[in-house]
């Protein structure tokens, strides 16, 4: 899978000693790992291990009590979702978070908002440069729609779409941001085999064609072992393993975490 | 026939005034999914600010100053009320706007006084007779109502374009649908809220000018907000054009009802007819004429 001329680069994102708690609950406990440019990095672990919390920390929804996040060589403790998005981090959600009343096209167009720079005045008038700009962004979005093979649902309000397609639209919206780092929170949850295969193909193609770095949370171990370059395993908010799929598969701590062990 | 049209026309013009208030509600509802209970109080506050500032300065400057006050108000609301409540349920934000409403009712009257003030910004106020060639005797209307209708028409056109065509419009709709998703694509929630509340503050000012000129600036104009409710139910909470059409139907409906079926009930039905109409409407088409269909997959 990692063939096809794709080169893993230097470190794109590094999280160091992240601790996050909600009241008395420790969601993350001193977690450190890195994500290299152009790789597909999986984050796995049993339910409640802190995987989603980790993504929320990376894209600025949660503010960790401790630790630093280094993205593109700039270290920060506390970032907001706006900073994260404008510096090139896009994401999808475990429970699909789309703009339900809007069409597929409009949903994906929202991903371009940060790229649109014309000022308010022209925007309000909607002619001249603003109109031309809108057209350019529209062209990008149409390419994404082609790429994801969702031409037929361009004008359909997303609330009406089946689950698998909604997931695809959500991926499209994230792609429209042309992110450097794409966070996918269970992109294949609740899908049937065909839908999973499609989604796998899209993830690999995105990684391959655009060189986008991808961090994904996924429960389907077959998928994880198949598509990811490296895997980090969390359990009860701690990191228990980190390495290639093969290394992780044979790791005793991981096996115990998944199968349970008598103490 | 001329009489029918005169009543109808009078109703339309009254409806335009309802629509002006309804517009403010629609704006905030579209952009945050919140029913802003404070809209009526904002109308009063804006009108009070203007009428008192006019004692000190020329009308155009007083208007600009009032706009500035409504923008500052938007900034304060965002900082103190909305920001701490981000990602909360709509109902919680709604409760917060009730608090805002009581606060500015009191604050406005403390700062600006609670008397009845006469507002005169130079809107014409003479009855004219129009369409004389069509009907015998023509139709008697008030110039003031015509001007109000033109203002409302302009406002709606501008807002409709703003919402449908610009990237800000798309960002607003995105924020209304899902705060988290909007943040994840980099929409600055705070800026959006300030823009929306400022805009609806300015709409409140326009409504305040029109209503204040008609009734005088006094506490009771904050209650005209109540008449906006049936308008919203008819037009749909999310539609700018809907607010106008809803306003026209309610305005014309209640006037015609008063004149033609009022006597059967002993008169005075103008006061409750709008609510009755809204109630019936809820049974048939709860999303309103132009509102977005609520789609729920189970």
Provide tags for this entry.
heterodimer, A: 263 residues, alpha/beta, Rossmann fold, 2 domains, 6-stranded mixed beta sheet, 4-stranded antiparallel beta sheet, 10 helices, 10 strands, B: 298 residues, mainly alpha, ABC transporter involved in vitamin B12 uptake, BtuC, two-stranded antiparallel ribbon, 11 helices, 70% helix, 3% strand
Compact description:
Chain A has helices at about 50-60, 80-85, 105-110, 120-125, 130-145, 165-175, 195-210, 220-225, 245-250, 250-260; strands spanning about 10-20, 25-35, 40-45, 65-70, 75, 90, 180-185, 215, 230-235, 240-245. Chain A is of the alpha/beta class. Chain A folds into 2 domains: about 1-90 and about 180-265, 3-Layer(aba) Sandwich (Rossmann fold), CATH 3.40.50; about 100-180, no CATH class.
Provide structural commentary.
The complex is a heterodimer of chains A (263) and B (298). Chain A has two domains: 173 residues, Rossmann fold (3-Layer(aba) Sandwich); 79 residues, no CATH class. Helices cover 37% and strands 24% of the residues of chain A. In chain A, the strands form two sheets. Chain A has a six-stranded mixed β-sheet, sandwiched between helices. Chain A has a four-stranded antiparallel β-sheet with strand order 2-1-4-5, with helices on one face. In chain A, helix 3 runs parallel beside helix 6. Chain B has 298 residues and is an all-alpha fold. Chain B has a single domain, classed as ABC transporter involved in vitamin B12 uptake, BtuC (Orthogonal Bundle). Chain B contains eleven helices and two strands. In chain B, helix 1 runs antiparallel to helix 10 and helix 2 runs parallel beside helix 4. The model of chain B has no long low-confidence stretch (mean pLDDT 84). Classes of the chains: A alpha/beta (263), B mainly alpha (298). At the A-B interface, helix 2, helix 3, helix 4 and helix 6 of A face helix 5, helix 6 and helix 7 of B.
């Amino acid at each position: 899978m990692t063939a096809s001329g794709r080169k893993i680069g230097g470190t794109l994102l590094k999280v160091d000693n992240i601790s996050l708690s909600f009241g008395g609950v420790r969601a993350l406990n001193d977690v450190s790992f890195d994500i290299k440019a152009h790789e597909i990095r999986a984050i796995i672990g049993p339910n409640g291990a802190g995987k989603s919390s980790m993504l929320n920390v990376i894209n600025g929804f949660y503010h960790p009590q401790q630790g630093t996040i280094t993205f593109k060589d700039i270290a920060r403790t506390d970032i907001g979702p706006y900073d994260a998005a404008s510096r090139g981090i896009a994401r999808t959600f475990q429970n699909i978070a789309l703009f339900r009343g809007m069409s597929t096209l409009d949903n994906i167009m929202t991903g371009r908002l940060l790229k649109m720079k014309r000022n308010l005045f022209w925007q309000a008038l909607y002619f001249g440069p603003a109109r031309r700009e809108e057209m350019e962004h529209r062209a990008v979005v149409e390419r994404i729609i082609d790429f994801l093979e969702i031409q037929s649902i361009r004008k359909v309000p997303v609330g009406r779409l089946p689950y698998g397609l909604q997931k695809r639209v959500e991926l499209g919206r994230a792609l429209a941001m042309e992110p450097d780092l794409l966070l996918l929170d269970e992109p294949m949850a609740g899908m049937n085999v065909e839908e999973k295969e499609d989604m796998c193909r899209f993830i690999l193609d995105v990684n391959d064609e655009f060189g986008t770095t991808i961090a994904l949370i996924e429960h389907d171990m077959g998928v994880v072992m198949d598509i990811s370059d490296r895997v980090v395993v969390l359990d009860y908010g701690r990191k228990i393993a980190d390495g290639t799929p093969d290394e992780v598969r044979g790791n005793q701590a991981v096996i115990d975490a998944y199968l349970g062990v008598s103490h | 026939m001329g009489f029918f049209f005169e009543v109808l026309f009078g109703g339309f013009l009254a409806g335009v005034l309802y629509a002006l208030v309804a517009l403010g509600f629609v704006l905030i509802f579209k952009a945050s999914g919140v029913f802003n209970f404070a809209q009526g109080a904002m109308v009063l506050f804006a009108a009070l600010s203007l009428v008192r500032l006019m004692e000190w300065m020329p009308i155009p400057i007083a208007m600009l100053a009032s706009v500035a006050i409504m923008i500052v108000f938007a900034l304060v609301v965002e900082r103190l009320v909305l920001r701490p409540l981000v990602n909360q349920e709509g109902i919680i934000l709604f409760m917060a706007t009730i608090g805002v409403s009581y606060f500015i009712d009191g604050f406005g009257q403390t700062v600006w006084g609670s008397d009845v003030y006469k507002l005169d910004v130079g809107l014409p106020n003479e009855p004219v007779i129009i369409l004389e060639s069509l009907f015998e005797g023509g139709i008697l209307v008030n110039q003031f109502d015509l001007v109000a209708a033109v203002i409302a028409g302009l406002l709606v056109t501008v807002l409709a374009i703003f919402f449908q065509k610009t990237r800000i419009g798309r960002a607003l709709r995105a924020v209304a649908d899902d705060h988290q998703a909007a943040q994840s694509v980099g929409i600055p929630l705070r800026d959006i809220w300030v823009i929306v509340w400022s805009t609806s503050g300015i709409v409140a000012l326009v409504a305040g000018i029109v209503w204040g000129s008609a009734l005088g600036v006094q506490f009771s104009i904050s209650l005209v907000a109540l008449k906006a409710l049936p308008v919203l139910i008819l037009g749909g909470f999310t539609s700018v054009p809907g607010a106008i059409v809803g306003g026209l139907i309610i305005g014309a409906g209640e006037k015609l009802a008063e004149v033609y079926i009022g006597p059967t009930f002993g008169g005075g039905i103008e006061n409750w007819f709008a609510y009755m109409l809204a109630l019936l409407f809820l049974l048939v088409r709860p999303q309103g004429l132009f509102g977005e269909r609520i789609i729920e997959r189970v």
